[in-house]
Amino acid sequence: MPAYKELYEQLRTSILTGQLAAGAQLPPSRTLATEAGTSRNTVLAAFEQLRAEGYITGRQGSGTFVAQILPEQLLSAEKPSRRSRRGGSTAKLSARGERLAMVRRVPIPSVLGHEPRGTSFLIGLPALDAFPFDTWAKLYAERFRRSAPQLMRYDDVAGYRPLREAIASSIGTARGIRCTADQVVVTTGSQQALEFCARILLDPGDAAWLEDPGYLGARAALVSAGARIVPVPVDRDGLDVAAGIALEPHARLAAVTPSHQFPLGHTMTLDRRLALIAWAKRHDSWILEDDYDAEFRYRGRPQAALMAIDPHHRVVYAGTFSKVLFPGLRLGYLITPPDLVDGFLAAHLSTDMHAHLIDQAVVADFIERGHLVRHLRRMRVLHQERQHELLRQADRLAGTLDLSPSDGGLHLVGRLAEGRDDRAVAKRALRHGVHVWPLSTHYLGPRQETALLMGYAGTTAEDMRQGFAVLERVLR
Questions:
Q1: Which residues, other chains included, contact 1 with Cβ-Cβ below 8 Å and sequence gap of 6+?
Q2: pTM assigned to the model
Q3: In this structure, how many other beta carbons lie within 10 angstroms of the beta carbon of residue 110?
Q4: Residues 239, 271: contact at Cβ < 8 Å?
Q5: CA 351, 354, 358: angle at the middle one, nearest 5?
Q6: Full 3-state SS string of 273-327
Q7: In whole angstroms, how far apart are CA 270 and each of 212, 244, 300, 425, 435?
Q8: Omega cis (within 30) before 338
Q9: Theoretical Cys-Cys bridge with 107: which of 12, 63, 150, 437, CB 3.0 to 4.6 Å?
Q10: Euclidean distance between CA atoms 397 and 399, whole angstroms
Q11: Which CATH number is 3-74 given?
């Protein structure tokens, strides 16, 4: 067909399918001609045809725009179906892609397709309202003045060296892990760290233990690697190692959250930790230790990390700054046995080279100047106060929604009366602007407990009051 007709058809299709929305401005004819590799007369002829049929309008001195109302006889043109966008006959996913698409998403509002509004008990959020914004801004400004050109270049794929040194130093004090900066790999958040571990340590079809109930992000990483997930039950002592051995003794990897099990909040006992390490040694398997919020413990001293008591170098440790600083930072890290470092660096090179250098440099300054230690000290006090407030206000729902205190973490588990559907409760509460998360979504096996996960660290007392008023109406 003539060149102008081809361009006309492309623009018409874009308008009818909604790719060019009503009122959208089209590029100037000269610009479009250059981008399309055609003459301006061709573009003008296509525009003239679209204008004559009522698809576009021109405004003197303003430009050319998609018409607000399209010709009635053409309104039957269909938009792409939801099925075709998600993998219908025109966009078929791989078998692994289909499995990954079916994994439930982490409870982040934007991932779930909505934004938080009003009162919210979002889990995984620290007290962002108490973050030292002024200190952070000063460190950023100082970094830009002092070393911006150097931080705009490529850098070590393992991460900014001063940050890795700061992590290696602080992790020894806080978690008892003895390591060097060369064992630290900085990632863009803990999810990338989990992905790296699954990709480097597993082949498709390998068995991997996963806590049941467990972290959805770890489940997604294992599915992405093509692993065969073995759900292992969790009790008050943490992962039931004996049950895991009975189910699949030769699993290649065990993904665990021993310091503060997610989502139940239990701490793995020393006996279970030693049994897990012995199993990994005996079967030449790996342990992925996700230590996501070990910094927030309110009673007693935390147990040493699994990696700190593993003499066989079978543990890979994953940490994150999302909870100790803020989630939008998107910085996490891995501490690996020396023999695995090259493999993790190769995984990093195959994705995004390294995390943002300016952010890494500011976090390094924040740690080295003592701001992180002071910030964590304040946050522990504030988070514990907010946990007490959540428990106090929850008394009004005793017998319907029962919460128990926790020695650490950022959320509590509110158990519902027998017969309640936690997913239905969460869905209805969300309609009223209250974000609670159903525990049942974290189970893989048949044993499921219905409860609500309720974040308290990032929720003020007034928001809690309003939230419980809504939950009381929903549950009633």
A1: 9
A2: 0.78
A3: 8
A4: no
A5: 145
A6: HHHHHHHHHHHCCEEEEECCCCCCECCCCCCCCHHHHCCCCCEEEEEECCCCCCH
A7: 20, 17, 15, 37, 35
A8: no
A9: 437
A10: 6
A11: 1.10.10.10
Neighbours of 65 (CB within 10 A): 16
Instruction: Measure CA 107 to chain center.
Output: 8
> Does the domain at residues 103-129+374-475 carry the CATH identifier 3.90.1150.10?
yes
Which CATH code, of 3.40.640.10, 3.40.190.10, 3.40.50.150, 3.10.25.10, is assigned to 134-369?
A: 3.40.640.10
The closest of 429, 425, 430, 456 to 441, measured between CA atoms, is 425
Helix (H) or strand (E) holding 65: strand 63-66
User: Encoding tokens for residue 175?
Assistant: 């978690």
Contact 223, 229 (CB under 8 A): yes
| SS3 state at 135 | helix
Domain locations in the chain as residue ranges: 3-74, 103-129+374-475, 134-369
Token representation of residue 270: 């020393």
pLDDT in tens, the chain (476 residues): 788 888 988 898 888 888 888 888 899 888 888 888 889 999 999 988 888 888 888 866 778 888 877 764 444 444 444 444 444 444 577 776 777 777 666 665 544 445 555 568 999 899 999 999 999 999 999 998 888 788 778 888 899 999 999 999 999 988 999 999 999 999 998 899 999 999 999 999 999 999 999 999 999 999 999 999 999 999 999 999 999 999 999 999 999 999 999 999 999 999 999 999 999 999 999 999 999 888 898 887 778 899 999 999 999 999 999 999 999 899 999 999 999 999 999 888 887 777 788 999 999 999 999 999 999 999 999 999 999 999 999 998 988 999 999 999 999 999 998 888 999 999 889 888 899 999 999 999 777 788 999 999 999 999 999 999 999 999 88
Collapse the DSSP code of 184 into the 3-class scheme (helix H, G, I; strand E, B; otherwise coil) and give the result: strand
